[in-house]
Amino acid sequence: MMQVRMMGIVLSAIMLLALSPTTPVEAQEVPTPVGWEMGLVYSDGASEDDPFQLEEGETSIRFWVRNDNLAGDIHVALGYDSSSDARLEGETHTTVGSGSNDTFTLKFIKPSSGLFDLWSIPAGTVYDFEIYGELTSVGPVPAGTVPAGIRPSQTIDGEVIVPKLYRWDVEIIEIEHSINAGTEFNLHVDLKNMGNTADSFTSASIEDDCPVLSVDDEPLQSMEGVVKQALGVTNVISVKLVFDASSTHPTRKCEIEIQIKSTGVIDGGQGDSSNKDETDVQVEARPVGAQQDQDDASVGNDDGPENQEQVTSDNFLMFPSLVTPMAIIWAALTRTREE
User: Fold this and answer.
1) What share of the chain is helix, strand, coil (3-state, %, to 5)?
2) CB of 196 within 8 A of CB of 165?
3) Which residue did the predictor score with more confidence, 234 or 173?
4) What CA–CA distance (Å, rounded) separates 79 from 76?
5) Cα–Cα distance measured from residue 266 to residue 192, given in angstroms and rounded to the nearest whole number
6) pTM for the complete prediction?
7) Residue among 155, 137, 133 at smallest CA distance from 146
8) pLDDT per residue as tens digits for the range 199-208
9) H or E element: which one contains 123?
10) What CATH fold (topology level) applies to the domain 36-163?
């Protein structure tokens, strides 16, 4: 009976061993390389159809390098090219870890020679650029060897565009002589569109620090809203302003300032919010006891009145037509006394 029981235990143990799962021992495999990718970083809703906008001075464009390999770093040599004259700066070599996605920056920089000045390039001009990546090593594979099935190099490309920039230059032609009180004088002003796109100006103003100096600003105001093209000989507006120095104006150096504002900047564009120029005009008071007829002080082509240095009349000058009647009266009185 004891033997039968022992036989049952043995058979049960054999059956349990037969029914239990077995796990074969396999050799550990090294993950095979998968690959790597490069691409550009777009922000603010932009896509590959939208060129990157260049900025004055320096423009940064971000791009990424992704290592899809399951094991081992990748070493990548980077290079850059562009159809523009900008100087390109960026990393030349990088290492990306397994399963990582690293971001890098390519910079468009204005060269010291000034050949890439956005203000002198028409708005909307588009340039191409390319970023090259070349694998120099992958994981444990010896340098210079790229495993089969992995691209040895990649290229990504994009476009950059020159934005609209707005700026005006205000140039007042200097008056090199003094102005007499009681006269008018001309002030010539050139307004030049110095941006890289068509523009007009608004909010024109003329200011001075003299108490009795006035000006007709209609010629300047009438030019507001006149559109001028950029980067050409037709981008200048010339204005002649007529100033009136009152006959009571004291001797004084008057500072005159003319300021305008770009319509493009007011509408949200990039550039200078306002531009201005200043000039000094020396006004000389009238000599004591003298007056000058404003009609005789007509404006000439020399930016000042004719005979500006002369006083036209004296307050106490006797009218010539009174000389003869007074002589007759004097003679009559003399005869009466003699009689």
Assistant:
1) 15, 40, 45
2) yes
3) 173
4) 10
5) 17
6) 0.71
7) 137
8) 999 999 999 9
9) none
10) Immunoglobulin-like (2.60.40)
What is the residue whose two structure tokens read 């037969």? 18
Range of lowest pLDDT (83-97, 198-212, 256-270, 300-314): 300-314
Pairing of strands 153-161, 52-53: parallel
Nearest to 86 by CA among 106, 108, 57, 64: 108
**294 pLDDT exceeds 90?**
no
Does the domain at 166-306 match CATH 3.40.50.300? Answer given as: no
Residues 239, 245, 246: CA angle, nearest 5 degrees = 140
| The pLDDT of residue 32 | 55
Tokens of 237: 């507006």
Compute CA 190 distance to the chain's CA centroid, rounded to the nearest angstrom: 21
Same fold, 36-163 and 166-306: yes
**Hey, where are the domains in the chain?**
36-163, 166-306
In this structure, how many other beta carbons lie within 10 angstroms of the beta carbon of residue 89? 14
Give the model's pLDDT for residue 234. Answer: 84
User: Mean pLDDT across the stretch 20-47?
Assistant: 68
